[in-house]
Specification:
The protein is built from 4 helices and 5 strands, in the order βαβββααβα. With 114 residues, it is of the alpha/beta class. The chain has a single domain, classed as Glycogen Phosphorylase B (Rossmann fold). This is Glycosyltransferase family 1 protein. It comes from candidate division WOR-3 bacterium.
């Protein structure tokens, strides 16, 4: 991918691959994100937190932002802190990794492609 534009990518999933209740979906997303990172893209994962997890982390070269819990994560996506975070961080594309309950990302992502 020489000469191609490096993208700022935001991925949204309800948990990351370090979470105690992780599963196949998290490892599948991890593989996709690691490959995108290998192409030089900047990757941020927005997901739920869990006991003992830090709010921000660097996991396998991917920035991880955790908010809420498995039970409240979707509600956090509609709040002011997330909208403020999106305004202050320019993403070229958002990957909405749907798992059970939709995030309705196109409704709050503004003009960023989902």
């Amino acid at each position: 991918m020489t000469g191609a534009k490096k993208l700022n990518i935001l991925a949204i999933n309800w948990q990351d691959w370090k979470a105690p209740q992780k599963g196949g979906a998290e490892f599948y997303l991890k593989e996709i994100l690691l490959r995108l990172r290998e192409y030089g893209h900047n990757i941020t994962l927005l997901c739920s937190g869990y006991p003992g997890a830090s709010h921000t982390d660097q996991v396998d070269g991917i920035r991880v932002i955790r908010t809420g819990s498995r039970n409240t994560f979707n509600f956090h996506l509609y709040g002011r802190p997330i909208r403020s975070y999106l305004r202050n961080n320019s993403f070229d594309v958002i990957i909405d990794d749907l798992n059970k309950i939709p995030f309705y990302t196109p409704l709050w992502a503004g003009s960023t492609p989902v």
